[in-house]
Amino acid sequence: MAVVFYHYAFRGFAGGDRTTLAYPLLESIAKYGFMGVELFFMISGFVILMTAANGSLRKFVVSRIARLYPAFWVCCSLTFLAILLIGAPHFSATFVQYLVNMTMLNGFVRVASIDGVYWSLFVEIQFYAMVSLVLMLGLIGRVQALLLGWLAATIVLAFLPMPLPMLRLLLIADYAPYFIAGAVCYLVWSSGASAARWGMLAACLGMALRDALGGLPLFEQRYDTRMNRGAVVAIIMSYFAVMAMVALRWTGPLARRRWLLAGALTYPLYLLHQNIGYMIFNLAGPVLDPHLLFWGTLSLMLLASWLVHVHVERRLSGPLMHACDEVVGEGLDVLGSMRRRR
């Protein structure tokens, strides 16, 4: 929800290229919502390592496809349809662009996304590729050492005088502290805490704070605003505190079923809300009260997300997982036979 408020109450208007609807009532708080993606990456580090912990590359790949694609296909299609109907003049997309977007790999072939939020999916896919490589090499049992090496490389890169952009891209250096922290929290959750693990979390926190504070001047310049450094530090530290509570199994009420449902809605909501919301703002802004438009659009996106979760994710994930299991299994068998021939 933090990212949704960031887009609706700050980014769309402040960027000057999405919508003319301003919402000053929440602007001063909503502008910090972009940091919600970092929490998502921490949670991903935890959940993805949990998914991969059994050491099965086949199950990991199938689970990721079944989890991501059904909702994405529907949300991407709805966004494309909205662009065709009400997108002009701020938004446009071609049919070929839409088809490439449907693969979720368009960022790797330099085809523009039809919704800006897809950038984080490319980062996620990079992380999945790293985990898949670990599984392929049979190194999941040494994951703590691998995480430590990844963290060390990220720290070294941060202080090198030369940028080395390709290496930073391969190591996901901009977001590595969050993925690593989430993965370490899973290790604490699954097999207990240790001095090494707490030390890794402390190093991740230090890098996360360094990167976040270092990026604020550019953010302030781009959006002509001022950010409270103390608030940024508090937000990041709260992420680490919450994940540490999860790792230590101190979650209590957070584990209740209603929170699980809220978590399930975040993915379709994230995929749907941004550009469709902006298009609704642009279409109805001249005739509707801004408060009614803002909260009405938010409610509509929540309803649409619930419908996608119930009627798409719940219904299609199982059949897709079954179908993909056979295809992925055959593909891995072919790769295995090729490796044996070598």
TrEMBL record:
Keyword Phosphoprotein: no
GO biological process, one term: lipopolysaccharide biosynthetic process
GO cellular component: a single term: membrane
Protein keywords: Acyltransferase, Membrane, Transferase, Transmembrane, Transmembrane helix
Limits of the Acyltransferase domain: 1-309
Molecular function in Gene Ontology: acyltransferase activity, transferring groups other than amino-acyl groups
Keyword Transmembrane helix carried by entry: yes
Membrane-spanning parts: 29-50, 71-96, 116-138, 145-164, 170-189, 201-219, 231-248, 260-281, 293-312
Pfam families assigned to the protein according to its UniProt record, in alphabetical order: Acyl_transf_3
Coiled coil residues, start to end: none
Source organism, top-level taxon: Bacteria
InterPro entries linked: Acyl_transf_3_dom, Acyltransferase_3
UniProt name for this protein: Acyltransferase
